[in-house]
Specification:
94 residues; two-stranded antiparallel sheet; 11% strand
Length: 94
């Protein structure tokens, strides 16, 4: 399932940040590429994070905002709901 996420202001995804005991990406980035991010700071505009199957095919389904995916709860703010509605309406028209 693809996820709608807010990238951190450092440009990385929530999954690239250390999680706290509740599983929220509230801490700094994993040490990748020398990123100095000290805490997850979500950008206001959400983006679709594409996922692929192990065979490399894109997964068209999008996890609805607020549902859990891979032990991680997706954001359900208004912006995410709106993006989800746009993306799913687009897929249905095809
Ligand atoms: Zn960050
Ligand atoms: Zn970062
Ligand atoms: Zn959101």
């Amino acid at each position: 399932m693809s996820l709608i996420i807010h990238r951190c202001t450092c440009g990385h995804t929530p999954g690239q940040h250390e999680s706290d005991s509740q599983g929220k990406p509230s801490r700094g980035c994993h040490p990748i590429g020398g990123c100095r991010c000290s805490g997850y700071d979500p950008q206001p505009t959400p983006v679709l994070l594409p996922t692929w199957t192990p065979t490399g095919r894109p997964i068209p389904e999008i996890t609805p905002p607020g549902e859990r995916s891979d032990r991680r709860r997706t954001c359900d703010c208004d912006a995410c709901q709106a993006l989800y509605a746009t993306l799913t309406a687009d897929a249905g028209a095809r």
